Amino acid sequence: MEYKGKVVAGLLTATCVFSIIALILSAVDVKDVFLPPGTKYGLVFDAGSTHTALYVYQWPADKENGTGIVSQVESCTVNGSGISSYADDPAGAGASLKPCLDKAMAVIPVEQQWQTPTYLGATAGMRLLREQNSTKAEQVFAEVSKAIREFPVDFRGAQILTGNEEGSFGWITVNYLLETLIKFSFAGKWEHPQNTEVLGALDLGGASTQITFQPGVTIEDKNTSVLFRLYGTNYSLYTHSYLCYGQIQASKRLMAALHQDGSYVQNISHPCYPKGYQENMTIAEIYDSPCVPTPSMLSPAQILTVTGTGNPAACRTAILKLFNFTCGANRTCGFDGVYQPPVRGQFFAFAGFYYTFSFLNLTGQQSLSHVNATVWDFCNKNWSELVETFPQNKEHLHTYCVVGLYILTLLVDGYKFDEHTWNNIHFSQKAGNADIGWTLGFMLNLTNMIPTEALEHVKGQQPSLWAGAISFIVLAIVAGLVAILLQCFWKSK
Length: 493
What we know:
Layout: H1 2-27, E1 31-34, E2 39-47, E3 52-60, E4 71-77, H2 90-107, H3 110-113, E5 117-122, H4 124-132, H5 134-149, E6 154-160, H6 163-177, E7 183-184, E8 190-191, E9 200-204, E10 208-213, E11 225-230, E12 233-243, H7 247-261, E13 267-270, E14 278-282, H8 283-286, E15 303-308, H9 312-320, E16 347-351, H10 352-359, H11 368-379, H12 383-389, H13 400-414, E17 425-427, E18 430-431, E19 434-435, H14 438-447, E20 457-460, H15 463-492
Parallel strand pairs: 2-5, 5-6, 9-16, 13-15, 16-17
Antiparallel strand pairs: 1-20, 2-3, 3-4, 7-8, 9-10, 10-12, 11-12, 14-15, 18-19
């Protein structure tokens, strides 16, 4: 009996010793440990003049010098045309967004959806509709807002971006993606890059075009100046948006000018369309926006026949007439009398600039003379030759000459690039895994206004000490259980 008592006492003593050791180990070298930051999400609809796209962004809940480190995790192109095309069917505009919202909900964790800021930004297409019929524009916005509110997100409104906002947010996107604003260093920290020049941004949409850059001189016209503070650094930028100079509206203005130069006859000879190409269109298809007001004597239903003549020299002459290159005294300007300092530094040209030059295989830093020769050579090809060479692109094939020459005119005569600065333009649509456009810049700037979440902290210690404490706790439990089991067993005997 005495032997059994000693065994139980020994086991109980071991239990106590193991427990004390575990307690000591668990109290040694305890520190406050911050948990990894949570993730926030944001949704931005880009409601352009030709189409709408939804972008899903995420960023850590803590920020670097007040601005989030944002990445694109999903994108979705909405079926159909831009929301401005639903002026006579506003409910259709709202319904068109729902499949992309469903796709976004599959990406964002359910518990975070209700706190996901969601925006819809409309650009030049809705600017034109608002000028044309403000009531219809409001109805479209009401329907898209209603559709978005049916989803469990923090919808913060639909708005029409100003041209300067569209241009400057595109500039933020370009420079963020190309790491001129902030960069992850070898030291494992986010840092402002030293001795790095920011890049300019060139955007060509369907209804407007934007130029934004950091000039080397004081900006003389405050209406073209914008100031941003990003990652603790201030940026003073020149930016301007030219409404009605997007590629679609410019093409319509050109068609209307050719029609008017021909004394409004039913047959239009188009020097920018390939020789042998012909199409019919109504007056309403040409004169359908504030950029191209309808002459009162024309019937909207009247059908016109457009015949291509494939004459690049005459095409360029006609395109030049769309611009007013007169500048005021003692003033540098781009066109239409708008102040613009000389272009400076490297530029990224995206959207319509990229799509057309990509088709023409001109995105590889070719010289201005090579680009000019390539576009003119394309414009000299007849329609049957083009269809045989590019059978998959027949729908838009007749437009590449007019848009190609328009881009050259806009960049060289309008924005004042020359043979020396031309190679500073980089034509691209993506950088890293993200699309270049205004939406990412919008979300980055927005994170300046979203409060930073305080990092959660817990008590923690070295893994080896923690493992040792757990081991002695297990030993104490085992010793205690064995003592209890032996005591019970011997008592029953």
